[in-house]
Amino acid sequence: MKRFTFILALVMSMLSFTNAKADKLSIRSGESSIYAYQTYSIENAFDGKYATKFWTSDSPKAGYTFTVYLGSSVKVGDIKLYFDNGDLPADGTVIEVDENNSGNWIQVGEPLTGIQANDVVTRNAGGVYTKQIRLRFTQASAYWFRLLEFEVYEYEVAIQERTISAVAGEGGSVTINGGSDAVTSTEKVQLVATPDYGYKFVRWTVGGEEVSTSAEYTDNTDGNKEYVAVFEKFASTDEWYASIGKPTFAEGGGTHLIAGVEFNGENLSGFNYTKGTTSSFQNDAFSVVPGETYSLTLTYELHWGDIALYQIDCDGTEKKYGYYTCQWEANGDPYAILGRNEDLMCEEFGVENFAALEHTKSGETNYIELPYEITVSENHKPGDLIVVRAMIDKGDNGAYGQGIREGGCFDILFVVAEDTSEWSTFYQPYPVALLEGVNAYIVTAAASDYVTLTRFEGTIPANTAVILNNGEPKGEAVDVDFSTNLLEGTTVDTYIHEEAYVLSKVDGEVGFYKAEMTDGTWLNNATKAYLPANTVPNKSAAFYGFDWDGTTGISEVKGESGNVKGIYDLTGRRVEAITAPGIYIIDGVKRVVR
Q: Does one domain contain both 214 and 256?
């Protein structure tokens, strides 16, 4: 009788609520409060494959949950669970949804009591708005637990004719059903938000209220609406990396794969990576400038399989390279990435067969050198990130297959700096290795009208504001104490509420000039440094020049004919003769006089 009652309730539920036209929703991720057994991972329960399964490594206890997360919040209809001919949920297990993502979990339909092998159980949430659904055990089970598939469907209702329009906030564009005009329809309306270079999509809003955080959103509701797409600038290079730095692979094995990395002719001894390693900002980034080309050569162990290189730019540009027929899809499926083009490699190296590309290194065979030129677009801005990713295949028939854990990837990071033929400032939240010919300075002291610049070499530490120049180095490079640095910086455009000095060039004179404030603030641009006014002895000074190792940049002042025609102080008063050190306007040019 119990079994019959359950089946009747299930049939009535499906007849009352199930709509065959309802769209199956994409499950972004899932989590479980009990671990999976071996390779029966949680992803198997929402991979669209009914032959795979999630299988626990222990018997669930009361309170155990299995939770899935949708890509965005929607009105949820049918929830379907497919059970294997094996370990089943305990009587009393319930399906719950997080109403309005508020933490208020409400039960959907009857408990899963009397579930049998090979059952497909359906419950309908009736349009509850959520992006979190879970299965919760209300009592302990005597068995492990198996689940073939967890499916969630959109709540389907008849839509009255309405007009849907959309506008884009700063930093992006929108389309409605593929066009720009408002749509009047009784059907679903597809909205797509596309961020501009340097921006990310954040949310859709209606009347100021958030509707979805997915850039692609489908409206299937009644009533006229105007959607607003909200975009934001990336807050840091770390966010750039998060947006483009996928996929990543689990570690597998410890075989030494990358035998060497050479950048612009310099051997990077620290870049000795092992198979399966995924690196990120734990290593130095290298500064590059727009419009330039740099060389990168990897020496790797061919014996362990294929390798492909990608240059992934934060402006969305993708560049596949190396000698492989590959395709990169941002945030895409890593299984279909690699496929070696041996003929192209042989042609490039001028050999008859692929085996001839192998060479001996350190007494071992099966090594190959893979050269590549990194091109930096002129459209790049200071602070932009370029990732050069080496992706490694296991080598089984040129495909990952089940050997994805035997592969891996590692990144070499490049941050775009300003062309420092002129003086510039720089600030980043991670270490940046200086290229040859680039000089870096911190400000270590301030006098009444000048600051002392101290030069250092090697790597700019993380969160260190510096001054850069690639001209003739000034002063001797020393081991500096970065805690003495007077400069500060920001990773994003930031309004500063305190007085400060910014690096500028006025009438040919480079130095720190007083920042112009509007309504008590001034804007410091992303990745730039500044000199806080509270670090100098004279906050009223309009200008601070440079000094290196106690010597000034000007030893004497002369006009073009050798005679000075006009000398003024910074208040604009004319002076007959210079009787004290300071800053003067001489023949229309600011000069530092010692």
A: no
Long-range Cβ contacts of 215-219 (<8 Å, 24+ apart): 216/190, 216/191, 216/192, 217/72, 217/190, 217/191, 217/192, 217/193, 218/23, 218/154, 218/188, 218/189, 218/190, 218/191, 219/164, 219/188, 219/189, 219/191
Counted domains in the chain = 5
Which of 72-76, 344-348, 548-552, 572-576 holds the top average pLDDT?
Answer: 72-76
Tokens (6 digits) for 9:
């309730």
Q: How far apart are CA 374 and CA 96, in angstroms?
A: 51
How long, in residues, is the chain? 594
How many CB atoms lie under 10 A from the CB of residue 391?
Answer: 24
Residues 255 and 347 placed together within one structural domain of the fold: yes
Read off the pLDDT of each residue in 518-540 and give the average, rounded to a whole number.
Answer: 88
Looking at the structure, tell me whether residues 401 and 467 fall in a common domain: no
Concatenated DSSP letters for 22-91? PPBPPEEEEEESSPBPTT--GGGGGSS-TT--EEBSS---TT-EEEEEEEEEEEEEEEEEE--SS--PPT
Query: Do 185 and 308 share a domain, yes or no?
Result: no
Beta bridge partners of 313: 386
For 216, the domain range is 162-233
* Contact call for residues 450 and 491 (beta carbons, < 8 A): no
**221 has a pLDDT exceeding 80:** yes
pLDDT digit string, tens, across residues 21-42: 578 898 988 899 988 898 899 9
Residue with tokens 């480079």: 510
* CA 339/CA 305 separation, integer angstroms: 11
Q: Do 462 and 494 belong together in one domain?
A: yes
